[in-house]
Design goal:
This protein is α+β, with helices and mostly antiparallel strands. The chain has one domain: Oxidoreductase, molybdopterin-binding domain (Sulfite Oxidase, Chain A, domain 2). It has 9 helices and 12 strands. Strands 3, 4, 7, 8, 9, 11 and 12 form a 7-stranded mixed β-sheet that branches. The protein is globular, with a radius of gyration of 18 Å. The relative contact order is 0.17.
């Protein structure tokens, strides 16, 4: 993928109706046409795509949780333009045989980009369908060669007090998250670099973030600068701030309510009525085996 700026305004990103028409065109033309398409897009449906209408770009870029840019859903659209995403590096370190620091453009060239359409479920009972561009997190981790001691992957987000001067109080910065290594290596877990076929907007975690679609949205760390593999379970921002509300696993579970609201239903952005929340956000067939024998109410 070519070098680009990822702090473009939402108006510069391809409109979702044009993107959707492009996908249908490629599907109609078949594999040969898809092979000639831009490398960031694969055309047609992948094995993990959901057959649901993607949420509008306007909603995806103007209704966000991104506490580094403010506590309200509209704050990232107002304030994230201050974030400069060039230069940018991402380091892979800790319990690995081959630690490495990638520049963002080097990262994009090293790992083939693919397009996936994922459900995305936030802990506050709203949801979306996101057309991401990225590559499997497992590909990046395997390249670093995890050692036998590696049991967890810890993620650290970028933080700059000047660029993020509207950051919400009540949590610590930089933002940190983590996964068990088998979760991080699952083919559903993505390193995301784009949205709607264009570079990832600042509002959604540019230039590179993690997406773990069977978990609540706060597990998908934005603007990451470091991945560290470790033997011990890493601390996570919301578990540190409010351990009675936010557990380490945070799998989407309609049977486990947040202390202040039900998780049984959700509202899809752009829709009026609520719909039932799906266990593991609808990805149970793919990921439930990761938690065989676990008490998912205790390990929330």
């Amino acid at each position: 993928m070519a070098s680009y700026r990822s702090d473009e305004p939402a108006s510069a990103i391809t409109p979702e109706h044009l993107w959707a028409n492009r996908r249908e065109f490629l599907k109609a033309m078949g594999v040969a046409a898809a092979a000639l398409a831009a490398p960031a897009l694969a055309g047609g449906r992948g094995p993990f795509d959901v057959d649901e209408k993607p949420t509008s770009l306007q909603d995806l870029t103007h209704y966000n949780n991104f506490y580094e840019f403010g506590p309200d859903k509209g704050d990232p659209a107002e304030n994230a333009g201050a974030l400069k995403t060039r230069p940018w590096t991402l380091s892979i370190e800790g319990e690995v045989a081959k630690p490495k620091t990638y520049g963002i453009d080097e990262l994009l060239k090293a790992f083939p980009q693919e397009e996936r359409i994922y459900r995305f479920r936030c802990v506050e009972a709203w949801s979306a369908v996101m057309p991401w561009t990225g590559f499997p997190l497992a590909a990046l981790l395997k390249k670093a060669e995890p050692t036998a001691k590696a049991k967890y992957a810890a993620f650290t987000s970028f933080y700059d007090a000047k660029a993020m001067s509207h950051a919400a109080s009540g949590i610590g910065y930089p933002y940190v998250e983590g996964l068990r290594l088998d979760e991080a290596m699952h083919p559903l877990a993505l390193v995301v670099t784009g949205l709607y076929g264009k570079p990832l907007p600042n509002t959604n975690g540019a230039p590179v973030r993690i997406v773990v679609p069977w978990k609540y949205g706060f597990k998908s760390a934005k603007c990451i600068v470091k991945i560290r593999l470790a033997a011990d379970q890493p601390p996570t921002t919301w578990n540190l701030a409010k351990p009675e509300e936010y557990g380490f696993y945070s799998n989407v579970n309609p049977e486990v309510d947040h202390p202040r609201w039900s998780q049984a239903k959700e509202r899809r952005l752009g829709e009026l009525f609520r719909r039932p929340t799906l266990p593991f956000n609808g990805y149970g067939a793919q990921v439930a085996s990761l938690y065989k024998g676990m008490d998912l109410k205790k390990n929330y």
